[in-house]
Amino acid sequence: MKLDINALLSGKVRSLPFAYEIDCGGEDDMPRPPAEVTFTSPIRVKGNISDSGSCLYLTLEADADYTALCDRCGGKAEGVVSCRLERMVAEEGIVADENSDDYFIAVEGKLDLDAEVAEELMLAFPPQILCREDCRGVCPICGQNKNEGDCDCEEKEAERTDPRWDAIARLLEEIPDEDGHGEN
Ligand SMILES: [Zn+2]
Ligand SMILES: [Zn+2]
Questions:
Q1: Mean pLDDT in residue range 61-75
Q2: What percentage of residues in the chain have a pLDDT greater than 90?
Q3: What's the pLDDT band for 98 if we cut at 50, 70, 90?
Q4: Distance, CA 74 to ligand 1 centroid (Å)?
Q5: What's the pLDDT score for residue 180?
Q6: Ligand sitting nearest the alpha carbon of 77
């Protein structure tokens, strides 16, 4: 959405609160969430632009609901991702470097924040998305989802790698049997 800030630019108001939603499904030039993530709500944006006398300063908060595949068990993970943005606002043609990350540039009295907000939100995803904080993952041996129940692989593995068994295995290796070696 384009935010009309003419009232601020003309000095009519000193503060401009705003709230709106960004529909991510629509436009093609919107940043997409990571491949395995789906937004289940629009991006909710809420913020304010204030005139400090020397500059216009924008602060906003944005969040959206999402579902994803758990990084650990592959099950469904749900959550809310949120971010915060603070930026100075300048009219087109006023600041030297309009591509600077310090500024949002108003074109013909209007600000288009959608792409920036969406991009910032993508960066806010945790590096690992889990179905729950203590997700137990899947068994690397049999593939059992351990949130749903235990398998006995771990027990078997523990037996196999128990150092006491190693010691016994070594002893057995030292005793020659008919096959000429100690194992089995
Ligand atoms: Zn999980
Ligand atoms: Zn298992």
A1: 94
A2: 58
A3: confident
A4: 6
A5: 52
A6: 1
Strand partners, 105: 90
DSSP code of residue 99: T
**CA 156 / ligand 1 centre spacing (Å):** 23
Nearest to 108 by CA among 11, 3, 22: 3
Residues near ligand 1 ion, CB 5 Å cutoff: 70, 72-73, 75, 131, 135
Which tens digit of pLDDT belongs to each residue from 106-135? Answer: 999 999 999 899 889 989 988 889 999 999
Parallel/antiparallel/unpaired status of strands 56-69 and 103-106: unpaired
Q: Please count the other Cβ atoms lying within 10 Å of the Cβ belonging to residue 75.
A: 16
- Of the candidates 83, 85, 12, which has an alpha carbon nearest to the alpha carbon of residue 48? 85
C-alpha 140/C-alpha 151 separation (Å) is 11
Tokens of 60: 């906003």
Closest-CA residue to 33 (of 75, 83, 72): 83
Q: From ligand 2's centre to the CA of 126, what distance in Å? A: 28
Distance of CA 127 from the midpoint of ligand 2 (Å): 26
